Write the structure tokens for this entry.
Amino acid sequence: MKFLRSLLPSILVLGASVVQAASSWNFDEAIISVASKGSAGGGLKDKLSDHAPLTKAVEIGAQDTLKIILTATENGKAKQPHQAFLLLRDQDTGLEMTFPFTMKETGKGKVDFQQKDLPIQLLKSSQPLRATLLLGSFGTAQAFSNHVFNLDVKLDQNVPLPKYEKPLRYGKLAEIHHIFKADPTSPPMVISLFFVLAVLATVPVLFGTWAYLGANINHLSKATAAAPISHGLFFSSIICMEGVFFLYYSKWTLFKMLPVAGVIGLVSFLSGSKALSEVQSRRLAGER
């Protein structure tokens, strides 16, 4: 009795491991049907077996829709698997394509496709495609992977096959030689001369306006004697700024012109304020 009692736990553990090892995925009530577009019925409808494929190949035409409805089971109980696919394989080349099932928590699933969903490589197969049903999930239960039927693709002879497009593959490409546009040049000479003449035409107008407003050229010597540095720097900064604009127009870039223009502008501001102070002192003294 003591020997049997000591042996009983080992027997139970062994039995549990056998049951666990025997657990596997399967399906129940798997119905395959092929319906033509616009037809109310009369297409293929058959039941799939979990241990032997259909004896006759399933034919799918250009306007047909193939649909499979099944219930996935684990150890005979309906359950939703983590993965459920219908795998189609070209028996000549070994190329494969999978169609995933839409599964519910109750274990019921459905997959449907048409001939247009198949790649051109499978459409050109010389033999019926081998259809395999795949069911599996996490855990120790053995996945289900069995050949369930053969699919014979019936092409429409009046419709040409779609052209094969080479897939995009990333890798080393041929060397690319960039051609950059030339740097922008100055406008045409005619346009430049037109604006130069337009600016020069304003000079007589400027001197005429000064004479009309009462500008006194006789104060030039007195102004330069009172503040020679301020007046000289102010007048020179104006000339230099015009030269900077000319260089920018002809060959300088913006980043080369801005620092120089900033320095000249600062000199013009400081010297101009001193020169205007000298002019103000003469105005307050009554000199016009």
About this structure: The longest helix spans residues 254-284. The longest strand covers residues 25-36.
